[in-house]
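The methods section describes the discrete structure representation at length, but only in general terms. An entry of this sort, consisting of the sequence and the corresponding backbone structure tokens, reads as follows.
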Amino acid sequence: MPFVIGRRWLIEVDIKKGCALNWPKAVRARVNYKVCDEGIYRIYDSNKKLIKEKEGYVPDIFSQDDTSFGDYVCMSIDDEGLIQNWEVTNAMLEDLLS
């Protein structure tokens, strides 16, 4: 799996575009990682300045199939790095920034 380092999955996602940055070409993935309350989520602005760091349960934005209940990162990533069925609501963004 791309971006797995030890027991951690360190991935950068463009929230607006719904794509994994620097995703290797021709690699597809169905992600279902159990994170529970051990995740660390960082939000950066366009200049790579840290806006917010949040620890804990998986934010809804990273569980696009509604079955994670805050415990799993669930998503499918295509061979271009696009996260399938990516949808971002204002509530999701507010949750990330709160």
In short: The mean pLDDT is 89. The helical segments are 90-97.
